Amino acid sequence: MIIKARYVVPVDRPAIEDGAVVIERGRIVAVGSARELPGRPAEDYGDAVICPGFVNAHTHLDLSRLAGRISPGPDFIAWLRRLMAMITAEPATRQRVHQAVRAGIAQSLESGVTMVGDITRTPQWTRQVLSASSLRGVSFGEVTAIGTRRQLLSERLDAALAEDWLYEHMKIGISPHAPYSVEPAGMRACAERADKCNAPLCIHLAETADEERFTRECEGPFADYLRGLGVWDELIPKSGRGPVELAKRTALLGKRTTIAHANYVTDADINRIAAGSASVAYCPRTHRAFEHAPHRFRDMLAAGINVCIGTDSLASNPSLSILDELRFLRREHADLTADEIIAMGTLHGARALGFADVAGSLTTGKMADLAVIPLDASNAAAGWNSIFESRQPPIAVYVSGELHRNISEEPVR
Ligand SMILES: [Zn+2]
Prior knowledge:
CATH superfamily of the largest domain: Metal-dependent hydrolases
Number of helices: 14
Mean pLDDT: 93
Largest sheet: 8 strands, mixed
Order of helices and strands: EEEEEEHHEHEHEHEHHHEHEHHEHHHEEE
Low-confidence stretches: 406-413
CATH topology of the largest domain: TIM Barrel
Structural class: alpha/beta
Bound molecules: zinc ion
Distance between the termini: 31 Å
Radius of gyration: 21 Å
Number of strands: 16
């Protein structure tokens, strides 16, 4: 099958004008100029851009049920309290989780996202839906265990990993939630377990400025938050270190780890992350909604860190579209090149999640996961990067060479 369009953007090499992609049995077998690739195209998308499917490196699909029901603002902990209150008032049930994850998957695919790093509090239910979908990626089981709940650690670690049906398109990962919800010993236990079973890791780290006071001295707003939750006890250790240094000492900065946010980092932290080879998932619109200090993703890129893009959940972000995030970045950072922007939203995400040899770029041999984005007729001559100026969603999305189906109608095992 051949598909063509005015531009093909492979990401691992320069864009091709009048390009084509040849797909066989779900894989890309050739990418190049339409003139040089013989055969009649199954589809000629005309004034459009064919690019790799987008990678949402950090999201929580099961929170899609809270879409638009709590608004983020400068007080992160107030938002967290509202979130927890809502989860308590409407506890997760199999049906609610299935519904939310299904809605999240449908929204992802419609926006051109073909791979996710998804964190779930209820792996047993989320994975029933995710594994039946065509999305690729990692399902991270979330682990929280602090204070009076520290003894739940091993049970939660088992739950995060417990799966006897692993799928080729979906890996199982572990997410020690954050340094204010897992103690250093628990963080280390997650890292060791991940090491043993070669599982990807994800942690919310240095998300707010207050986190440092908590990891160093066990004081400040996060200590009060834990008291409010009723889980505080005097045995929670003071590490005497900032969150990134603590993550390093608990073996959480390795290549297998995606750090969500890293909003408050020093030069030394950037060096620590670069030295460990962890990836950073920057969530541009969620970052803005919480009114954080400017993100240092450009310093991170300059230090050689693999910076990828996430949306976070619909409890803090208006959509699950990585293309929307990239368009936001383009508006905010006019000097970033289109190549840099699209790489963060595709190949870097695949690298972070351990799928770089499977997808993330239009490369011969990789799976044919791609998005087709229309160009406004008036902009088409201006180059492929005008997809960032337009507001149009993709007109087609392929996963493993198949046009995506309406997953809300797919049966759940
Ligand atoms: Zn998150």
